[in-house]
């Protein structure tokens, strides 16, 4: 997903932008005014029919986005709402455009639970919580960052110290996982947990079409 965004916007992928205790990739709206962006996201007017896919970087976001988008819109067409980053919260600068989208709207983000739209969380609207084994994800992220515009060359040990031990990108994998595991336990009816590993083995059973369409996980 991020490679597609970087190619489209033609901007460096580094350095990251600091916001409170986390860092964010330098997407245009984030670079312009990260505080205004985060406020706009938190105040976004979610609908009951909205679905938000939440995942750490390099956890299968593209894959799940395509599957769920097809199921929600009952089609075999790819990217039924346009390019993937049009549905990515971190790339949004025109929130009015999102307001005009027809339901069901499908968005995705790498941010932890605490930064999701307040209305979406407080009303228990639909969330797909996608995660991946942290070891595999770390290797994938290391390879992904190599050669990206603005990212300094680094050894695996340097990457591990900066992006695993002291991970702050989107708040880090551990923060993300703790928050969504807590949400999964407290609001099991509105949070659908999905793992990259299980999806590879049992795709249909992990994301059954009838459950996505009706949003019934019982």
Structure description:
The protein starts with a helix and ends with a helix. By secondary structure, it is of the alpha/beta class. A hairpin with a 2-residue loop joins strand 1 and strand 2. The radius of gyration is 17 Å and the shape is globular. The strands form 2 sheets. It has a 4-stranded parallel sheet, with helices on both faces. A two-stranded antiparallel ribbon has the order 1-2. It has helices at residues 2-9, 28-32, 34-42, 61-73, 95-99, 118-122, 134-145, 156-165, 173-186, 196-201, 203-206, 209-214, and strands at residues 17-19, 22-24, 51-54, 106-109, 126-131, 191-195. It has one domain: Rossmann fold (3-Layer(aba) Sandwich).
- Run of helices and strands: HEEHHEHHEHEHHHEHHH
Oligomeric category: single chain
> Strand order within the widest sheet?
4-3-5-6
How many separate domains? 1
- Report the count of strand segments: 6
Alpha-carbon distance between the two ends: 31 Å
What are the low-pLDDT stretches, counting only 5+ consecutive residues below 50? 1-6
Q: Supply the CATH class.
A: Alpha Beta
CATH topology: Rossmann fold
GO molecular function: sulfotransferase activity
Keywords: Transferase
InterPro entries: P-loop_NTPase (IPR027417), Sulfotransferase_dom (IPR000863)
Pfam families: Sulfotransfer_1
């Amino acid at each position: 997903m991020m490679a597609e965004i970087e190619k489209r916007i033609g901007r460096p992928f580094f350095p990251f932008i600091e916001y409170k205790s986390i860092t964010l990739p330098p997407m245009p709206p984030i670079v312009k005014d990260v505080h205004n962006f985060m406020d706009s996201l938190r105040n976004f007017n979610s609908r009951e029919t909205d679905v938000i896919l939440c995942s750490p970087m390099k956890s299968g976001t593209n894959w799940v986005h395509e599957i769920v988008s097809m199921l929600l819109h009952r089609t075999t067409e790819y990217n039924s709402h346009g390019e993937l980053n049009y549905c990515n919260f971190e790339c949004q600068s025109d929130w009015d455009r999102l307001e005009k989208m027809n339901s069901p709207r499908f968005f995705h983000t790498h941010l932890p639970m605490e930064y999701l739209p307040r209305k979406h969380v407080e009303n228990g609207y639909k969330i797909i919580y996608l995660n991946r084994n942290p070891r595999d994800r770390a290797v994938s992220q290391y390879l992904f960052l190599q050669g990206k515009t603005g990212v300094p060359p680094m050894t695996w040990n340097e990457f591990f110290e900066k992006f695993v031990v002291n991970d702050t990108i989107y708040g880090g994998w551990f923060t993300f996982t703790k928050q969504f595991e807590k949400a999964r336990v407290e609001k099991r009816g509105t949070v659908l947990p999905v793992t990259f590993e299980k999806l590879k083995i049992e795709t249909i059973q992990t994301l059954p079409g009838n459950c996505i369409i009706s949003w019934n996980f019982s």
